[in-house]
Known about the structure:
Elements: H1 6-12, E1 24-28, E2 31-34, E3 39-42, H2 45-48, H3 57-69, H4 80-92, E4 99-103, H5 106-121, E5 125-129, H6 138-142, E6 160-164, H7 169-175, E7 180-185, E8 188-189, E9 195-196, H8 199-212, E10 215-219, H9 233-236, E11 243-246, E12 257-261, H10 263-266, H11 282-297, H12 300-314, E13 320-326, E14 329-334, H13 338-347, E15 350-351, E16 360-363, H14 371-383
Parallel strand pairs: 3-15, 5-6, 5-7, 7-10, 10-11
Antiparallel strand pairs: 1-2, 2-3, 4-12, 8-9, 11-12, 13-14, 14-16
Amino acid sequence: MNISNHNQQEAHLNEVYPTLPFKPIAGRGLYLETAEGRHILDLYGGHAVATLGYGHPKLSSAIAEQAERLFFQSNAVRLDIRDEAANSLAAFAPEPLSRVFFVNSGAEANENALRIALKSTGRKKIIAVEHSFHGRTAGAAAVTWGAKESWYGFPYDPFEVAFVPRNDVNALNTMVDRDSAALIIEPVQGVAGAFNFEPEFLNAARTACDNSGALLILDEVQTGVGRLGAPFGADLYGLSADILTTAKALGGGFPCGAVLMRHELAKDLGPGDLGTTFGGGPLACAVIKTIIETILNDNLLQSVQKISTRICEICIRGPVIAVQGAGLLLGLKTKPKAALVRDALLARNILAGTSADPHVLRLLPPLTMGEKHVDCLAEALEEMSNENF
Ligand SMILES: Cc1ncc(COP(=O)(O)O)c(C=O)c1O
């Protein structure tokens, strides 16, 4: 049997993903290449992951050098590279979040954040927000809107959960009470379609937590690490979190995640309280350090702000009627179904994503996106003006 035979491989993979009709074999900058010679402008970044695009020399050499030096060691031993990554992440993150626990994914980061909140408050209830997405593991799915009706919902939640309607300050003030361990919220709801909250709602989130003794968990798995044109959504919206989770852009494609927390929470955690085999491995840590260094050295936060403004200025055309979101987590509101616009863009070699909102097309490009890429998108949308969707 030829195990490299492509059809054989397809026969063995579980077919659980609706896949796009192209197969990349390489990537360079913002472009994916196919065997047929197509060059596809990737404005989706593998679900907000490809922070520095593809083939970034600093990332490749950081991985190669670390792999050569020490490929893996667990948290059973202290590693300089792990301390360096934690220091640079804590310095990059907003002030009170001085302690870091490294994990492997967004869901795992949220799972740990929820556990810390429940244990440290001794309470049993978590408040989440309608239409949120926090992941597919038991705890993360329990606070994900609609998970119960989906395949990854479990028959019982591991703790009590209540969902606040979006932007309903009164409901927030009533529901976040003295039985609530935490309120978990994305600063901009990603999967929901780059949905922005009203500033009053985000401010009320902090106040409601202060008044009730609940913790504020910011899920920055999608919004974090420069995506919004600030280190985190917490910086952009002036929100002080007790716990912040992040993943996706943190590793630029290398699987990793992190839970950041206030020192007061961390000091109650001792050896054996949290754990992971792979989290905080040397390769992940070398990548995290390099991603943060590159964002800062190449002024990518300023660039994200500039490119975001340009998209809002010139891409409301053709099928696009409005833009929502922030930085490079943008939702293009489309008159026709977003999936049809996604297909029409892909036919022109531009990749964008859909969202839970059938009329919102999501852009989650690498933070290295430039003006010429925005112009490509604007031209393609203009060309679609007369398209019959
Ligand atoms: C806001 C948010 N939280 C958590 C997750 C889950 O992350 P992961 O798929 O890495 O487990 C996602 C993934 O899309 C997300 O967007």
